[in-house]
């Protein structure tokens, strides 16, 4: 076997050197396939371990070489790429499983002078974990789950080795410390939180829970680990282990809070007093800040060593050029401020630090606490800064460079823009896959935080912000469109699945975005600017996205605001109504039906108002409306139910919808007769808004009267009575309705005369205080004068020719049409 081993070693060196080049992933993969790697390597290692010659030095050397080449395989790029070859990931997963099974036996072998086999085996495990973190969830998840469930003794061994508890008599102090550092790195790679939101996070959380439990139950091991925080070669990995374990164990957080050596060690790390290379020092400072923020969040109290922490965090925030370090410091400072610690957020210095941090490219060392993103800390700090009474908020922040850069960075993180902050947004072309948001940069909670920040700025300086909503190509509008898009909301919803998810986050993002889009309708804006904003919203397909967001991501009571926004857009732009109808598929119709017939009055009213605008926009939308209301035969039944709703605003909205449907000749085929009686009853409703909408609907019914003349004749006294209603719009609608009754049915002439309609209309035309009512009365009189019976009833009066001439002349001067048509709402 010794001869075979001597021949094998050169071959292993060649293969190892080839794998270490990482030159061409496809060729290296095919080489491994031809050589049946790593199955052959792991098989040989198993045979050597099973042989009786394990105690011989050559066997340790061969095992070390086999593990080294296997490690080269684990770190190869083709294990991260599905496109290399079908089955490559399956081979990788199986090799990882076999290696885990061999690892305890490798670590238990007799040690040579330099303990190379132990070192190489632990290094191989470390690099395997790093490769797993970058692999797909279907491979990484089962690996870490198996590590925790089947190989927890291996984790215990790594923890013992990392703390320096395992010592050999023949080992020097330097060798023991070096081996402890290697064990520490392995344990950190096994339990540390991976960047991104891949499927292995949950499985690694189980590993972290096991490590946290071991640390909490063995104070000696925890103390030894804490002592190593000040050792330059292992402090960063020690911080990673504690950071991951504190995420899943509040008891460990309490132990760290009480640990006497913790404040001093963390203070040294923050100050940069521990000698280590510059990049590592920055990473250690970032990890320390994150650990302190995590302790503050978990314990709901300021961390240990408060004075030093606040001072050093402030220095790092304003002086550091590392984006992730500035963000971590900002996050901690705002946490301290929220717990009552006096923290000077600064003014111009803080603003300059934020601008520099958002301008520079960012690279994370560790994911921020509890799933937050890199920019979350910066946004959190900025929100606190703006919330102060003095400072940035008083000098036109909405027009500042920092505000512009913030929008660009958030847009890029959400997957909308690419490139430097000064570049304008780029939206994917039709058919292109939409990039997934980079949750490392901005978390789902950070997205909501940004929207809170935007709402604060919009509220303080609306006129500086609204101009961006009037430009179809603006980054502001493109970002808001992205936040409402189905693909983004799907990604956002997926992040909230599981125990730790927040079911209220997605609805909050939708509603905050709607609030920003509602600003043009909530402040004074000239009509031209408002028209451009509405046009830009339609071009950005905001109406379509609003309906889809309501259907799939909002509870029914929360749909009032987006439906109201849809109504405002449809009122001012027919394209908005068209988009609404175009995306109303079967799920949308089901949702809309549930809103219409639901128990929540406000969403029902907003939807009725929206449907009224849809009906008003075009007769092409009638099939959609009929289908939504239960078909042309069932529409009357649904509307009749709504007209009898206990809430006045729903009754008013239902009347308005009926009135707009009746603008079209086939607006309610087969359903009008059944609704007429209900409409006529509502003419006497105690609520003024209901009466106004009801007379509007009755007026349009009169315009389309057909065979309903006799039914409408019975309502004549009620309509006449509304000429004296307190609301001018109701009086105007009543006058128009009377004109329509006279225009469309000669047989109603006697009823009109009996109810003194011509005289009362003439009185309104002469004496009503509102010009709109006087004009509506004149138009109605013109329509009535077309009926011979009414004209004859008025002509014999010799005392009124002058007044009649005055009225007709007034009508001609105003350009009043001969026929009134449908009532205005």
Automatic annotation (TrEMBL):
E.C. no: 2.7.11.1
Family matches, as Gene3D superfamilies: Leucine-rich Repeat Variant
Disordered, as annotated region: 419-438, 789-825
InterPro entries assigned to the protein according to its UniProt record, in alphabetical order: ARM-like, ARM-type_fold
UniProt catalytic activity: L-seryl-[protein] + ATP = O-phospho-L-seryl-[protein] + ADP + H(+); L-threonyl-[protein] + ATP = O-phospho-L-threonyl-[protein] + ADP + H(+)
Domain of life of the organism encoding this protein: Eukaryota
Keywords assigned: ATP-binding, Kinase, Nucleotide-binding, Serine/threonine-protein kinase, Transferase
Entry keyword Kinase: yes
Gene Ontology cellular-component annotations: cytoplasm
Chain ranges passing through the membrane: none
Pfam hit, one: HEAT_2
Protein name (record): non-specific serine/threonine protein kinase
Organism: Alligator mississippiensis
Underlying gene: STK36L
